[in-house]
Amino acid sequence: MDAMQGVARGGGLRGSAVSRRGDVMAGIPLAVLAGDPITREGARSYFQSCSQVRLLAPGRPSDAEVVAMFTTQVTDETLVSMRRLSAAPSRSRTWIVLSADGISEARMLRAVRYGLVGFVPRAQAGMESVLQAVLDSRKRRAEPPDVLVRSLTDQLRTLRDGLQDAQGPDTARLKEREVAVLKLLAEGCDTAEVSDALGYSERTIKHILAGLMDRLGLRNRAHAIAYAMRSGAL
Question: What is the pLDDT of residues 74-102, one digit of tens each?
Fold first, then answer.
């Protein structure tokens, strides 16, 4: 059975105690979805003890600000569950952090559209990394692995070369140094390598990216690279 089978179709009210303003970090309303009961109960037990999140009762994942999904293989049914979460009526978008053995480029592209903001390979990280991705999702910093960002970049470049969207974003909305940073990220550089290449501190690079994503409403670096490609800046 797919890990995401049985995602609720309905919405619900989020906890009024959760604040999204400023740097106030109230416990993030979190739901856990996993087809394997051992994984599900293990994850719930871990998050239950974390003060940074507020674990919701099973059965209403659309009430969550973030859903932590655990599966082995990402299937079409997994993506259907993500789509249902993204379409469920709620006061705010539900973001998804996925932990799986792997995910194809095509499915990653679809998953990002449905609210995926973090991907944690199960073989490479433990629950601490999943928690960090959940916390980072509120600040729009959770990222897919570098190898998948590079794969997505190649695929998006191919799509752009084959079909240019005349109604795409305005390149004027991207600042010169933002384009310089995104070009290096699209080539597979990490933050430290971008810092060395441009002569900025790593903190400045992160500040540039955070400002870009906040100004244009972008979810993560992969989304920012896609935006720049569609605009013709890359």
Answer: 998 999 999 888 887 765 778 899 999 88
Report DSSP state, residue 170: -
Distance of CA 17 to the CA centre of its chain: 24
Q: How far apart, in whole angstroms, are the C-alpha atoms of residue 93 and residue 177? A: 30
Q: In what order do the strands lie in the sheet with 28-34?
A: 53-55, 28-34, 66-70, 95-100, 116-121
Unique residue bearing structure tokens 């679809």: 110
For residue 186, what pLDDT band results from cuts at 50, 70 and 90? confident
Alpha carbon of 137 to those of 97, 153, 174: distances in Å? 8, 21, 23
Start-end of H helices in the chain: 37-48, 76-87, 105-113, 127-138, 146-162, 176-186, 191-198, 202-216, 221-231
Separation of alpha carbons 138 and 25, rounded Å: 9
